[in-house]
Write a structure and sequence with these properties.
The structure holds two protein chains of two kinds. Chain A is an alpha+beta fold. Chain A has two domains: 3-46; 52-280, 3 helical TM bundles of succinate and fumarate reductases (Up-down Bundle), CATH 1.20.1300.20. Chain A contains eleven helices and six strands. Chain B has helices spanning 2-18, 116-128, 138-146, 148-162; strands at 24-30, 33-42, 53-59, 70-73. In chain B, strand 1 and strand 2 (33-42) form a beta hairpin. The chains are: A alpha+beta, B alpha+beta. Chains A and B meet through helix 2, helix 6, helix 8 and helix 10 of A and helix 1 of B. Chain A: Its EC number is 3.4.19.12.
Chain lengths: 281, 168
């Protein structure tokens, strides 16, 4: 959910929003920002970064009395068994994507090796594009640590090692989890800039690809759009299927594969402004 | 969260000590607390702030570098982009969308790949070239635009006071 939508929701609920009279001596923008922080804190305290796996049918309860959505959930249930929710903080696409993909790598050693090599090289590519080595390194180191934690389980003798639990812990540790998000944002930005003549067509207005990256990709909490997903999935060579569930008339929930024609390794559910993880049957 | 911030701040401190950029000294006020720094910034050559050594404080949030620090000069300042209480108002100290002054959309913004060094270099450019569109100090912005001689006189007095010299 976007911050704007959230503010609207919270204002409507009349909850925790301080009512203040207009005071011309007070910087209104600063007040708005303060309120924003408050809303963000509410979300932080109530929703984990990445939740537990839930039965897909748990979604139905959210749409009592809403036939359009209910029908869509029913249709999706034919394809998906579980859902895993993520915190709506603007980073949800990156967090959902990386969690779902790394979880998959726990059981796919070959793909893991391919990805690890690509991830290891990615830092040099970013530095070559002009990203500052010193700060990129900070995020890259954590990114590799998280990947290697997944890899560790490939060499463990006891096959019952709860790799999934470890991953869950790492992704719910704000520091590690956010660093993974930052690094994926950098990779996305790098891909956009490397292939800027292609991506320029997707950017509205007169903004250059570079400005777009500085304003919409690299900073935390900025929501992701198609262009982010295309760039990231292309850069990593990882197929993503996104199921778009909105108020459209069709009872089917449209699927988009990124990059086009790829074999999906990660499945995400999109509801306006937010991404969660899906698990196929 | 604060753990990664601390690690990053220690690394930045080391980097700034080993390779200090010209005209800048910065580090934690007290090594027990890496989230509060002091910086000394030399007024850029060829500007009305030349020769001055301006002390400032940087306060880092627990989720640094995801969010930017705040910066405040601790000496008297008179500059279009510095509030009367010393707080610095430039775009790099704000993430996009986080916009108290409505900066130009192309202006450089905070993102986690920025650093203390980048901030301080931006502050030096700000001292050299005030942005009189973003008026943190409206009087200073007006004087900068309309009466440069008077502005320079105030700047000179401030420069001298940072060096412990009496007004000219």
């Amino acid at each position: 959910m976007s911050k704007k939508q959230l503010s609207a929701v919270f204002v409507k609920m009349g909850d925790k929003v301080p009512t203040t009279k207009y005071d011309p001596n007070v910087n209104q923008d600063e007040l708005i920002m303060k309120q924003q922080r408050l809303i963000e804190k509410e979300i932080m305290d109530s929703i984990p970064l990445v939740g537990d796996k839930e039965d897909f049918s748990s979604l139905e309860g959210e749409y009592d009395g809403d036939d359009i959505y209910k029908q869509k959930v029913k249709n999706l249930a034919k394809n998906y068994k579980y859902i895993r929710r993520t915190r709506p903080d603007g980073n949800c696409f990156f967090r959902a994507f990386s969690y779902a993909y790394l979880e998959k790598l726990i059981d796919d050693r070959e793909e893991f090796n391919r990805f690890r090599e690509l991830a290891a090289k990615s830092k040099e590519n970013l530095v070559a594009l002009g990203f500052p080595q010193f700060t990129v390194e900070d995020f890259h180191d954590t990114f590799m640590e998280v990947i290697d934690q997944v890899g560790k389980h490939h060499s463990v003798l006891s096959p019952g090692a709860p790799a999934g639990e470890d991953l869950h812990k790492v992704f719910n540790d704000q520091g590690n989890s956010d660093y993974v998000v930052v690094y994926l944002r950098l990779i996305t930005s790098g891909q956009l800039q490397r292939d800027s003549s292609f991506y320029q067509h997707f950017i509205e207005g007169a903004r250059s690809v570079e400005d777009f990256c500085h304003q919409e990709v690299e900073p935390m909490y900025k929501e992701s759009d198609h262009i982010h997903i295309i760039a990231l999935s292309t850069a990593l060579g990882v197929g993503v299927r996104v199921r778009y569930m909105d108020r459209g008339d069709s009872a089917e929930v449209i699927a988009h594969d990124f990059p086009e024609g790829s074999l999906p390794q990660v499945h995400l559910l999109y509801r306006p402004g937010h991404y969660d993880i899906l698990y196929p049957h | 969260m604060a753990g990664s911030a601390l690690r990053r701040l220690m690394a930045e401190y080391k980097q700034l000590t080993l390779n200090p950029p010209e005209g800048i000294i910065a580090g934690p006020i007290n090594e027990e607390n890496f989230f509060e720094w002091e910086a000394l910034i030399t007024g850029p050559e060829g500007t009305c702030f030349e020769g001055g050594v301006f002390p400032a404080k940087l306060i880092f949030p627990p989720d640094y570098p995801l969010s930017p620090p705040k910066m405040q000069f601790t000496c008297e300042m008179f500059h279009p982009n510095i509030y009367a209480d010393g707080r610095v108002c430039i775009s790099i100290l704000h993430a996009p969308g986080d916009d108290p002054m409505g900066y130009e959309s192309s202006a450089e913004r905070w993102s986690p790949v920025q650093s203390v060094e980048k901030i301080l270099l931006s502050v030096i450019s700000m001292l050299a070239e005030p942005n009189d569109e973003s008026g943190a100090n409206v009087d200073a912005a007006k004087m900068w635009r309309e009466d440069r001689i008077a502005f320079n006189r105030i700047a000179e007095r401030i420069v001298r006071s940072t060096l412990g010299l009496p007004p000219p």
